Amino acid sequence: MLCNRPIFSAQTVVEHSQNLMKLKSTILFFLILTAFTTFDIAPNPISANGIYTLEECKVRMESEIVSVELFKEYSIVECTFEMLNYGKEI
Prior knowledge:
It is built from one helix and two strands. With about 90 residues, it is an alpha+beta fold. A hairpin with a 4-residue loop joins strand 1 and strand 2 (about 75-85). The longest helix is centred in the N-terminal third of the chain and has 27 residues, at about 10-35. The chain is elongated, with a radius of gyration of 24 Å. The termini are far apart.
């Protein structure tokens, strides 16, 4: 004799769709995060309309470390930038 009960309850379907949405949001977050970490903060020399420097920039970013810890309700982001001044000290 076959049972006419559904295999999944409505609550299970809702929980599954919520978990799927969280997964999609997390993947999107990491895609956006990695897209912006590939760009340098200031090219040398700076070439943008309306921005002019008197001298060539002698400060260069040597390294950049971005660490992200994800938790259920929040996240912790730590950024470390190592800059090096190749010009005269001020």
